[in-house]
Design brief:
about 140 residues, about 25% helix, single chain, three-stranded antiparallel sheet
Length: about 140
């Protein structure tokens, strides 16, 4: 290791340092973009049961706090919690608990799904070009 350091020149150290610093550029850009709050209206959360929208909530700061239970089928329940600008599946009686483990969602495009109960939480709203992820064709 020591013999490698002796062969490196000052420019090599500068280049390595520059590459390390530039590797954080995408993270800084993403943080700066989301901190600007470029959305014109607050996002809306849709609660879908069996593909049908049964409720919608506006997600905004100093908004509502509400807990509501949905019964998609006999013997099944999902407790949805809205807390200001975020929403989650707080509790359900599905075997896998994937929707519960998803946690809070708040940005357009995020979803939480309880597949056995056919319950979907989806956050919709204004998208900026930076929010869209398009597939390569």
């Amino acid at each position: 290791m020591r013999h490698i350091l002796h062969k490196m020149k000052l420019f090599d150290f500068i280049l390595i340092g520059l590459v390390v610093i530039l590797s954080f550029a995408p993270n800084l850009y993403t943080y700066w973009t989301y901190s600007q709050g470029d959305q014109t209206s607050p996002p809306t959360a849709l609660v879908k049961v069996n593909g049908e929208v049964v409720a919608h909530y506006t997600l905004e700061k100093n908004g509502q706090h509400e807990i509501k239970t949905y019964y998609p089928n006999k013997g099944q329940y999902n407790i949805i919690e809205v807390d200001n600008d975020r929403i989650r599946i707080k509790e359900d009686n599905s075997p896998d608990q994937i929707g519960v483990r998803t946690g809070w969602i708040s940005r357009p495009g995020q979803t939480a799904v309880c597949l056995p109960h056919h319950v979907v939480l989806e956050v919709t709203g204004d998208y900026s070009e930076n929010d869209l992820i398009l597939p390569l064709s």
